Amino acid sequence: MAVARSKRLLTLATRLLVASRRDLVVSSPEEPLPIVRIPRALQRRHEQQQRRQKNPPQPVLVRPGPLLISARRPELNQPARLTLGRWERAPLASRGWKSRRARGDHFSIERAQHEAPSLRKLSSEDSFANLGLEPRVLHALRKAAPEVIRPTTVQLSTIPPLLRGRHILCAAETGSGKTLSYLLPLFQRLLVRPSVCAHHVPAPRGLVLVPSRELAEQVRAVAEPLGASLGLQVQEFGGGRGMSKMRLQLSKQTLAHVLVATPGALWKALKGQLVSLQQLSFLVLDEADTLLDESFLELVHYILGRSQIAEKPADLEDPFSFKAQLVLVGATFPEGVGELLSKVTSADSLTTITSSNLHCIMPHVKQTFMKLKGAEKVTELVQILKQHHKTSRTGHTGTVLVFCNSSATVNWLGYILDDHKIQHLRLQGQMPASMRAGIFQSFQKGSQDILLCTDIASRGLDSINVELVVNYDFPFTLQDYIHRAGRVGRVGSQVPGTVISFVTHPWDVSLVQKIELAARRRRSLPGLKSSVREPLPQPT
After folding, report:
1. Residue 107 — φ and ψ, nearest 5°?
2. If 0-12 CB within 10 Å is exposed, 13-18 middle and 19+ buried, where does residue 323 land?
3. pLDDT (tens digit, 9 = 90+) per residue, 82-121?
4. Beta partners for 206?
């Protein structure tokens, strides 16, 4: 009874539903049907899926051979034998990295050669004796640096014009031997000049201006043994001291022939009449791109104004005319140099020299870029450092430099490494001078394998034992990236160099894409303009 009643009700409901639909259509035949709108993004995704089904992707056939670019996705690899044209579209591995979905992606610029560019194709006949250096200077070089046998390409091109009395602006890649290229002519010039008369304040005959105390320590360490063999005294003069301490430091060694100083310290000493530049014969601006930056430019203007720069080479030939020879060296060519030098010397007396590899990706250093979230960087860094520690137990490895963009990040990251029992050193600009003194030298001597630092450790410092550079924070500019990457793969380094960069922000991705494109096309990095006219000759 109940079942029959249910069937009757179901039949009645079906008839009512059909009747209502028939009535709806008949009663309003001109009324439009309702429109269902599909989101355009969903529609495009559906169309893409249909195209994929019609045209399935073909398998990527990678021919055997070395790679220039190795990516996580094999279809984006680039063989070493392939060079993209200037206007050819490049399939960048970092193209979609500004999207959150790119997290975890990575690619590497592989090592294309094993020797530094400044050492390639050097002839066995090239020697310092053929450059015009005096026997006394050659003997001092053999005694102070017996491991230096042949000059690099930069030294071959820079030393002869310096010995002829030319003002030089030399821009070459990091680690190419620029320090010796100006120190040897400096000492030779002081040897051939007559001794100066006594002065009531210290009056150095040679001045090397550097942007940081760490670089001043390093240049002094290279120059001091050379000067000791020649009877010339070298003194370092850094900042972070009061006037009384500066006066005491200068009074201890009033007969210093060569002064290695930072702009701030020398500016204070000149203002306080603690030192004189009236008897200067040789003036060097090391890391000129940094010294001519806004933070140092006013100080350097003042120092150049207190120096008597020779207007032409003939002024340097007079042994009784105290005119200074000017040398500017750097790894990135500074803009506006001509305008600055026109105020102190004539443009005709300046010889501009540059390396053919200037502003290029170093071909002998592997460089890896990893797209990470900010919260993932600490875990990745700790893993890299622990892996390096395990490797160092099994065999000889180099040291590690970890770069951060701020002093606060260096300190915070140091606490994290302390919690993980990872021993390290820290170096940042807000440290007191007494605390900063000697930290980089301790790192160079191997007291610790890891150094957390800011960009004060990226300019000019010799780091032949560094095997790995980690950009925990990606640098703000391409110039900073060149200097950081230049801490590995230097002349005299016995360990292969590697750079690992963590890429987090959209502005980081923009710089990475420029680096990748320059590497794929084998061209210099964009935006680093220069007016270089005389490239270094290629040795035969």
Report:
1. -155, 165
2. buried
3. 877 777 777 899 999 999 889 999 999 998 877 766 565 5
4. 258, 282
Yes or no: say if 471 and 484 are a contact pair by the CB < 8 Å rule.
yes
Position with higher pLDDT, 267 vs 149:
267
C-alpha span between 509 and 369 (Å, rounded): 10
Residue whose C-alpha is closest to residue 471's, from 370, 380, 398, 402: 402
Here the tokens at position 400 are: 């590690």
pLDDT by residue (tens digit) across 30-58?
566 666 677 777 788 878 777 767 665 55
User: How many CB atoms are closer than 10 A to CB 249?
Assistant: 18
Contact 450, 443 (CB under 8 A): no
What pLDDT, on a 0 to 100 scale, did the predictor assign at position 125?
64
Q: Can you name the CATH fold of 67-114+364-504? A: Rossmann fold (3.40.50)
Model-level pTM greater than 0.85?
no
d(CA 132, CA 134): 6
Selected from 3.40.50.300, 3.20.20.140, 3.20.20.70, 3.40.50.150, the CATH number assigned to the domain covering 122-354 reads 3.40.50.300
The secondary structure of 340-383 as a DSSP string is: HHTTTS-GGGEEEEE-TTTTS--TTEEEEEEE--GGGHHHHHHH
Domain boundaries, the chain: 67-114+364-504, 122-354
Closest CA to 485 of 445, 448, 525, 521: 525
Cα dihedral 67, 84, 334, 432 in deg (nearest 10): -30
